[in-house]
Specification:
Layout: E1 3-8, H1 14-17, H2 23-26, E2 32-37, E3 44-48, H3 61-72, H4 75-82, H5 86-100, E4 105-108, E5 111-114, H6 116-136, E6 149-154, H7 156-173, E7 178-183, H8 188-193, E8 199-202, E9 213-221, E10 223-228, H9 240-245, E11 247-251, H10 260-266, E12 273-278, H11 284-288, E13 293-298, H12 299-306, E14 311-315, E15 325-332, H13 339-354
Parallel strand pairs: 1-2, 6-7, 6-8, 11-12, 11-13
Antiparallel strand pairs: 2-3, 4-5, 8-15, 9-15, 10-13, 10-14
Helix pairs in contact: 3-4, 3-5, 3-6, 4-5, 7-13
Length: about 375
């Protein structure tokens, strides 16, 4: 609502105060003029003078018709350009005349011409339609010019296994793109849900809000046993009983509850003793080497940890490794159609297809 404030000089405003109050300012029903004296802003008179325009009542499709009519200045030619019938354009013109309270096209000896209002509208309409096209048109992602900041989260070792290859490739094609690895929270999917990160790398699955989360598979692998090369279990096949009797190390990100292997052993009435519980995969080698500890880890993580260390990898009893571990890249629905995120997912797909996403395993002693 447009309100025009006009101040007048008055010797006394007592007469106005007897008739109007401050509430009048707050109850002006339509666009108008507020008259107020210099001496007292409380003295007001509201005069409704302008027609309120309700955009909800305006059919924006008519603006496209208006643009063609103003350009061609002829109903038939505008109808041809718009691929509409002449009667339909004529009806649209009448609605436009009602909307603008102006004839827009006026008849002359030589044909139709633009009214004074139409002449003013034409450049404004051109800018408006151009802006609407840019608003609706899907944004384009140009890697060479992109400077987006992409945030990812995941466990330290998961990130070390898969993210460096992606960033190297991305920087070759989009050198100004920036990346930030965010420390993974206990509830990693909450970071996706609240928009703190674009991607989450994990072998976990969301328990809530899964309908708004997308994913793509990065890798899958067996669970294996990692131990010191001198560990007696390294010299012979591991039975279910010998596995349960070993001294175990466990990586627990949350620090709560038993591990997956405990549930598997419980199916056979067995349990294990966890001697060391760690909060990170990165320190596993330091605790495993030179000790009798046995860690059950996803194979590619175990191979990464065992590099350049006196550690060996051995198969675990099949009873406790009933399924493979699958690593996924997750993202929220809010970024599903984001051009930069689409481009990155395409790069990851290419890396995975070529086999370049997963690093080669370490050569380990037998």
């Amino acid at each position: 609502m447009l309100v025009i404030l006009i101040r007048i000089r008055s010797v006394s405003c007592q007469c106005l105060l007897t008739r109007y109050s401050m509430e009048a300012v707050q109850t002006v029903p339509r666009s108008g003029i507020v008259i107020c004296c210099y001496r007292c802003d409380q003295c007001i008179v509201s005069i409704s003078v302008m027609r309120e325009v309700n955009l909800r009542s305006v059919d924006l499709n008519l603006l496209v018709v208006l643009s063609a009519l103003l350009e061609h200045r002829h109903v038939s030619r505008a109808a041809l350009v718009l691929n509409m019938s002449q009667p339909a354009v004529s009806r649209a013109l009448q609605r436009l005349r009602d909307t603008f309270a102006d004839p827009l096209l006026v008849r002359t000896v030589k044909g139709y011409d633009l009214s004074a209002r139409a002449l003013l509208l034409q450049p404004q309409l051109s800018l408006l339609l151009s802006g609407l096209e840019q608003l609706i048109e899907a944004p384009q992602f140009v890697p060479e010019r992109a400077d987006n900041l992409i945030k990812l989260t995941g466990l330290d070792l998961d990130v070390a296994l898969y993210v460096p290859q992606l960033i190297r490739l991305a920087r070759q094609q989009a050198p100004n793109m920036r990346f930030e690895v965010v420390v993974q929270q206990t509830e990693q999917f909450a970071s996706l849900d609240n928009g703190e990160v674009h991607f989450c790398l994990t072998a976990e699955e969301p328990q809530v809000g899964a309908d708004q989360i997308h994913r793509m598979e990065l890798d899958r692998m067996d669970v294996v046993g990692l131990m010191d090369a001198a560990n007696p279990l390294a010299a012979q096949p591991m039975s279910l009983e010998s596995y349960a009797a070993a001294n175990h190390g466990l990586v627990s990100i949350t620090g709560l509850g038993p591990g997956l292997m405990d549930a598997q052993l419980a199916r056979f009435g067995l349990s294990r003793t966890v001697k060391v519980r760690l909060a990170s995969f990165m320190s596993v080698a330091d605790f495993c080497e030179g000790t009798d500890l046995l860690f059950a880890l996803p194979e590619r993580l175990a191979r990464y940890i065992a590099r350049h260390r006196n550690l060996v990898i051995r198969p675990l009893p099949p009873e406790v490794v009933s399924r493979q571990v699958v690593f996924y890249l997750y993202w929220h629905q809010r970024y599903h159609q984001d051009p930069a995120c689409i481009w990155l997912r395409e790069q990851i797909t290419g890396l995975r297809t070529s086999g370049a996403l997963t690093p080669p395993g370490a050569v380990l002693p037998d």
